[in-house]
Amino acid sequence: MITLQGTKQKEETLGLIALAWGRASVGEEIQIIQPNEMGGKSLEKLVLNHFPDAITDSRNKSRYITVIKQENEPDIILEWMANTRLRYVGQTGFYSMPGLFGWDKIDAGSRLLLDHLPDLKGVSCDFGCGYGYLSKNILLRNEKIKTLYCFDYDNRAIDACKLNIDDARAVIRQADCTRPISDVPPLDFIIMNPPFHDGNAEDKQLGVKFIEMAAHHLRNKGALWMVANRHLPYEPILTNRFTTVDKIIEKNGFKIFKALK
After folding, report:
1. Could you tell me how many helices (H) and strands (E) the chain has, helices first?
2. Angle between helices 10-23 and 40-50 (to 10 degrees)
3. Which domains occur in the chain, in start order?
4. What is the pLDDT, as a whole number, of residue 125?
5. Do 226 and 256 touch, CB atoms closer than 8 A?
6. Which of 66, 95, 127, 232 would staple 192 via disulfide (CB 3.0–4.6 Å)?
């Protein structure tokens, strides 16, 4: 049996089902576990629509859906497999894919941050760059940026950035922004829209670790520019790790900070 845990993104979950189908042997069971709060009922209905013989069960506030691999591959599996590959998203103008943060839209917090950034220059970094919305636009708007490191832990995001950003000043590579990163000089500024989910669960400590590592990598008097959801309590760690902290704006459920080391 192959067992998979669905995610918050329906398209990503469908892609995981397609991958499991491809790896399963004929006659093998594929069990999908999807919490009700993340669309378990609607996923169950969708799977049953394409696989009427699927076995379903409800327990532990989740739907358990079991599909048996058949010899003939249904057309829907090929359709769902497209969710496992990068694609050009017309409404954003970027390459992205399900599973990446805000994969098919421009994140409102990132847009707000971009709208409030000053002219920037020097050696810099986008912590948790995602598919590259902030990085690409910052490079386009600031000719005096010498180098912009684009870091993300998810290799899918790194692959997307490499397609989206055509600028020799961009250094795009996989890195864990919750830990010190090797081969990075002291930075003049860092921008970030830090994650606050680990998998499907909210984890405020992710943002705290991003802030700590930003302080670690910035030069003296270097600046951190960040956006966060209004409810996230980042003010104490910012005040603790930086000399001055200014809230630039609080609007539409977001807050933007400028913090000087």
Report:
1. 8, 15
2. 50
3. 2-84 (3.40.50.150), 88-260 (3.40.50.150)
4. 98
5. yes
6. 127
Res 197: pLDDT: 47
Tell me how far apart the alpha carbons of residues 71 and 25 are, in angstroms, rounded to a whole number: 9
**Matching residue, tokens 């941050």:** 113
Strands (E), the chain: 2-5, 29-35, 55-59, 62-68, 87-89, 94-96, 122-127, 145-152, 170-174, 187-192, 197-198, 201-202, 218-229, 244-251, 254-260
How far apart are the C-alpha atoms of 189 and 113, rounded to whole Å?
14
Measured CA to CA, the distance from residue 57 to residue 79 in angstroms comes to: 25
Answer yes or no: are the C-beta atoms of 158 and 135 closer than 8 Å.
no
pLDDT at 148: 98
Nearest in space to 247 (alpha carbons), one of 237, 259, 260 = 259
Tokens of 202: 């909210």
| Joined tokens for residue 257 | 């900070």
β-pair type (94-96, 254-260): unpaired
What whole-number distance in Å separates Cα of residue 165 and Cα of residue 149? 12
Location of structure tokens 């900070």: 257
Amino acid identity of residue 139, one-letter, is L
And the tokens for 41? Answer: 């009922």
Buried b (16+ CB within 10 A) or exposed e, 196-220: beeeeeeeeebbbbbbbbbbebbee
Q: Could you report the average pLDDT of every consecutive run of 10 residues in the chain (261 residues)?
A: 94 97 96 95 96 94 95 94 97 96 95 97 97 98 98 97 98 97 97 73 79 97 96 94 97 96 96
Does this model's pTM top 0.70?
yes
